[in-house]
Amino acid sequence: MTTNRKHVYHSRRDSVLLNRLRIGHSRLTHSFLLSGDDLPECGTCQCPLTVKHILVECVDLKDVRNKHFVASSIKDLFDNIEAHKIIDFIKETRFYKQL
Ligand SMILES: [Zn+2]
């Protein structure tokens, strides 16, 4: 991996996670495609539990999210928010081990 001083990841695991978030593909939100299970749902919002929902939409995560960043869309998030802030937010949610 090339070294980029502006984007120092905490670990290889975080780097992998960030890539998954960028392409909106994670084990949590896409395992149903392989397993044939129902699409996972956000228990709070009763809507599909997607990467976008976790990062931008979910009201249940809003307080935690606002401590790290405020983004109006996925594009806004990845264009304007530093990677470590996104990772720090995910680490504070229950999704870090699942994504
Ligand atoms: Zn939600």
Structure notes:
With 99 residues, the chain is mainly alpha-helical. It has one domain (12-92). Helix content is 53%, strand content 0%. The chain is built from 6 helices and no strands. It has helices at 12-23, 27-35, 51-57, 62-68, 74-80, 83-92. The protein is globular, with a radius of gyration of 14 Å. The chain binds zinc ion. Zinc ion (ZN) binds at residues 42, 44-45, 53, 58, 60.
Give the H and E element order. HHHHHH
> Low-confidence parts, pLDDT < 50 over ≥5 residues?
none
How far is the N terminus from the C terminus? Answer: 22 Å
* Count of folded domains: 1
Global outline: globular
Task: Count the E strands.
Answer: 0
Largest sheet: none
Given the helix and strand composition, which structural class is it?
A: mainly alpha
| Each distinct ligand | zinc ion
Mean pLDDT across residues: 85
Helix share bin? 40-55%
Number of helices: 6
Q: What is the CA-atom radius of gyration, in angstroms?
A: 14 Å
Which range does the strand content fall in?
under 5%
Features:
mainly alpha; 99 residues; single chain; globular; binds zinc ion
Please give the structural blueprint:
Layout: H1 12-23, H2 27-35, H3 51-57, H4 62-68, H5 74-80, H6 83-92
The structure holds zinc ion.
Concise description?
Helices cover 53% and strands 0% of the residues. The protein has 99 residues and is an all-alpha fold.
